[in-house]
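Issue: ligand-bound run for alpha-D-ribofuranose - logging full I/O for the record.

Environment: standard queue, default settings, no custom constraints.

Inputs:
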Amino acid sequence: MPRNIIIDTDPGQDDAVAILLAFASPEVNVLGITAVAGNVPLPLTQKNARIVCELAGKPETLVFAGCDAPMGRKLVTAEHVHGKTGLDGPQLNDPVMPLQDQHAVDWIIETLRAAPANSVTLCPLGPLTNIATALQRAPDIINAIEEIVLMGGGYFEGGNITPAAEFNIYVDPQAADIVFRAGVPLTVMPLDVTHKALTTADHIAGFRSMGTHVGDMVAAWTDFFERFDKEKYGSEGAPLHDPTVIAYLIKPDLFTGRHINVEIETTSELTMGATVADWWRVSDRAPNCTFMGDLDADGFFDLLTERLARLG
Ligand code: RIB
Ligand code: CA
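Outputs:
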């Protein structure tokens, strides 16, 4: 029985690969895709989400535009990483499939209110503005959420947009605080894991050798997107963040972590958006998430490559 999921996203090349992985995997059923402002502004993230759906051969997918700014802060974007369009790398045509008229937050609330208990998994891949706004406006939707599996945060790896904070959490710390305090089953893919999912030249060559349009697109996206992090970390490859969320739904045993307390810094500007993870359980704060710390990187890339090859 596939898991019903909603992907909330700010494409973003790594978001794009995560969405493709979801469409290629029978273990998950994508109920819809909700775009949020993050890597690039909302008009681009909603357009990019539709480009990826068409690339996957899924033009019937429901794609919604959500919040265009964080709950309490000015939007910070990441064109320096993802390029002006958010999907720089290959040449892309504008999407033909429609954007749904309904606001993403309204659709999330309506969908969860109509869903059976514990039946929908939310997969946030960007700032948590849409998810937190829905939870704040309709706390009753918690009942329908089976699990939230998100990419965000970092503990041993610190931050990537400031020394203390990872981008998705940093952009909307207030939203992250709402999600981490919501009492929903929460699984977190932090930089501690994604920094071990390094897209090496061999992996990119593997995408390219698929001989498919999807393989070529993924190779071009990862080539472009990785240049910034390879420069920054001086590593052989750069982290492929968002697909870890979908890989977890398909093969959870690829990942190991701890059920611990994680709270979000929402006051100090110096550490704004830090995920304060009680990895060593030194506080008496109640555990509120499974915070992943390691993954089988070879297994992750084998799964990703095998599944992407299923798409044309
Ligand atoms: O810090 C990495 C995260 O920020 C990823 O989700 C990437 O797409 C960007 O949104
Ligand atoms: Ca993202």
